Amino acid sequence: MGTILIFIQNAIAQGIGILYGATGEILTEKSGNLNLGVPGMMYMGGIAGLIGAFLYENAVAEPVAAVGMLISLLCAFACATLGGLIYSVLTISLRANQNVTGLALTTFGVGFGNFFGGSLSRLAGGVGQISVATTASAYRATIPILGEIPVVGEVLFSYGFLTYLSIAAALALSYFLNKTRQGLNLRAVGENPGTADAAGIDVTRYKYLATCLGGGIAGLGGLYFVMEYSGGTWTNNGFGDRGWLAVALVIFAQWKPVKAIWGSILFGGLYILYLYIAGLGRSMQEIFKMLPYVVTIVVLVLASLRKRRENQPPQGLGVAYFREDR
Amino acid sequence: MNTAREPLFHIVKRDGVPFPKALAIRAAAVLLSLVACAGVIFALTGMNPLEVYSAYLSGAVGTNRRLWMTIRDSATLLLIALAITPAFKMRFWNIGAEGQVLVGGLATAAVMIYGGGAMPTWLLFTLMATCSMLAGMVWGLIPAAFKARYNTNETLFTLMLNYVGMQLVTFSIVFWENPAGSNTVGVIHQATEYGWFPDLFGQKYGLNVLIVLSITVLMFVYLRYSKHGYEIAVVGESENTARYAGINVSKIILRTMALSGALCGLTGFIIVSGCSHTISTSTAGGRGFTAIIVSWLSKFNPFTMILVSFFLVFMEKGAIQIASQFNLNENASDVLTGIILFFILGCEFFINYEVSLRRHGRKEIKGWARS
Predict the structure, then answer these.
(1) Using one digit for the tens of pLDDT, what is the confidence trace for A305-319?
(2) pTM for this structure?
């Protein structure tokens, strides 16, 4: 029982970062932009949050956790949004190829994170290990009484606020896409920008907003990893390939944010399953680490076999829209 | 309709740009990106921008050894770019070059470890090259088969296979690790140099360059003058047209991806046998992704790719040099590469479109009234 409990907790802890990335990417892809820069934007969000908190904690004699939290949250969101903005300017206004631009953004963003993560201490004048424990404590604070209820409380209430925010964000996005006028417009833009344009929808504005905000949301995934998961420290490439898993999760969830919630926990579980299966040798552990990717491939193939219309990607995905080209 | 509002810019698609003008636009973009990079370096290190450029030169080509490292890495990047080009020309988004290179390298390392010293050198090399190409080919054919049969999205399929390949490498490392417990393979056959590329023309990496340049020429001919190359171009322009013209699209997809994967696998062979003499998850080192950008920026022209890949590796080596000089993290090179790519990607717009500012006092544009 105890092991299963810890497994579930760790699966959720692994999944939340991926969920942020997937939620942001669903919003982006619903506007017809396939942004492969998600891993880059997640690194950008993570490092910007860390830098913000670090500068604050160094500038003030007695840093307040809540203030540091707000600053880092804003920095992370702003920096990742900036990544989304670079992508938007290049693909929407300058009509560059989406795949290539996304990959360039990933190169840039991952490099950005690792560069500042690895050089921050030196740039700040050699302060040694970068750690923002005070700010991180705000991210790691759990719900006081509820979190202590055995089993139920431990599974449901033992996480920092970013965990709940990620689920709220996914639910909100689901509501936005399916129940609001703007959501309908956005989906129209992603399915067929020409038709949306003819209906008087400002295609460019929708694409810009969805892509930038999507980037910002994805960036919170990086922040989650730095603050709650790692406790306010940075390891180069510590975030690993979770950004690509987020892209995979979008397909797994078939562009539905609610499905992404449980999908992220499943992915998180698969990611760490090898630690919980007794008697695995080192070599077999490596084979087990393939699971999330293999599962995604299987889902991808199944989706293409079944061809159900509501499970397909937005029709205009990956195609730039030029009004003059119709 | 609202006729009072006129957009600030008029964007008109160009029919075609004379080559010198296109070249000038690209050169301007590269120059701007270099200025931006120098600005970033200045902000971080306080280094005089002119010194930045000389540090770049010294880092990339300053000594004979550095020059050859730059050439060696450009050749590797170039070969991956060449490998994925036929697939791209067919509009098959193979972003799995990383994984195809890795499994190629893995096959090479396996042959090298188990066969080194047990067979004549010519056989060892033949086996290494064949196995690496077969491994890469299989890795490329899996997503291609699903694409051809069920139209499964190849972008994400190939992306996922990268990580499956990576886990295969970590799986193998468990058996091959040397020294035990290090979790790395170490340099294979360090003392005997079994399965290492021999020197050519007195250069350690001469053979690498010779192989890659020959493939460059062959690829140019293949794409430009062969029937296969023509079929690839037709499928890339329009699958329907290809079908009406009686081209078997599935066959072309499979054949082209087999070639693409095999060449990626061969790159793995060249990296393991001709450069690093070891295998790790970073054997491909992100070059599978950079190569996509190289191929795209070169407009699928193999000879342009020589320039682009050399330029990118040059910038990378230079940035690493500056970073180490200032005790900064060498990932600075990725940031700078990213900035350069943004500029070059953005400049294509100005080649394809003509932008002119709104002109006041002219309500109508030559004859046709705005409605």
Answers:
(1) 877 767 777 887 877
(2) 0.88
Greatest Cα pair distance, chain B, in angstroms, is 84
Q: Look at residue B147 and tell me whether its pLDDT is greater than 60.
A: yes
Say if B52 falls within a structural domain.
Answer: no
- Bridge partners of B13? B353
Phi, psi (rounded to 5 degrees) for A276: -110, 0
Q: What is the number of other CB atoms lying within 10 angstroms of the CB of residue A308?
A: 9
The domain in which residue B98 lies consists of: 60-298
Chain B residues with beta carbon closer than 8 angstroms to that of A112? 334-335, 338
Q: Would you list the DSSP string of A98-142?
A: HHHHHHHHHHHHHHHHHHHHHHHHHHTTS--S---HHHHHHHH--
Q: What is the pLDDT at residue B359?
A: 61
Q: According to DSSP H, which parts of chain A are helical?
A: 2-30, 38-59, 65-88, 98-123, 133-140, 152-156, 161-179, 181-191, 193-198, 203-224, 242-252, 257-272, 282-288, 291-306
> In this complex, is the C-beta atom of B346 within 8 Å of any C-beta atom belonging to chain A?
yes
Percent of chain B with pLDDT over 70: 93
**Number of residue pairs across A and B with CB atoms under 8 Å?**
153
B174 contacts on A by Cβ (under 8 Å): 281-283, 286
Residues B289 and B246 in one domain: yes
Mean pLDDT of chain A: 86
Average pLDDT on A85-113 reads: 90
What is the ipTM score, two decimals? Answer: 0.87
Condensed to tens digits (0 to 9), the pLDDT of residues A78-98 reads 999 999 999 999 999 888 888
Question: Is residue B218 assigned to a domain?
Answer: yes
Phi-psi category of B91—alpha, beta or left, where left has phi over 0 and alpha has psi -120 to 50? left
HSE of A77 in the Cβ direction (CA atoms, 13 Å)? 9
Contact list in A for residue B333 (CB cut-off 8 A) is 111
Q: Confidence band (pLDDT; 50, 70, 90) for B274?
A: confident
- Put simply, whether B333 touches A (Cβ < 8 Å) is yes
Helix (H) or strand (E) holding B35: helix B19-45
CB contact under 8 Å between B296 and A97, yes or no, is yes
Give B209-266 pLDDT, tens digit per residue.
Answer: 888 888 888 988 888 888 888 888 888 888 888 888 888 888 888 999 999 999 999 9
Pick the CATH number of A2-325 from 1.20.120, 1.10.3470, 3.40.50, 1.10.10: 1.10.3470
- Of A111, A119, A281, which is closest to B334 when you measure between CB atoms? A111
For residue B228, the number of C-alpha atoms closer than 13 Å in the C-beta half-sphere is 17
- Chosen from A82, A108, A123, A271 to mutate, greatest number of chain B CBs within 10 A: A108
- Cβ contact B342–A86 (<8 Å): yes
Q: Chain B interface, mutation test: which of A41, A43, A100, most B Cβ atoms within 10 Å?
A: A100
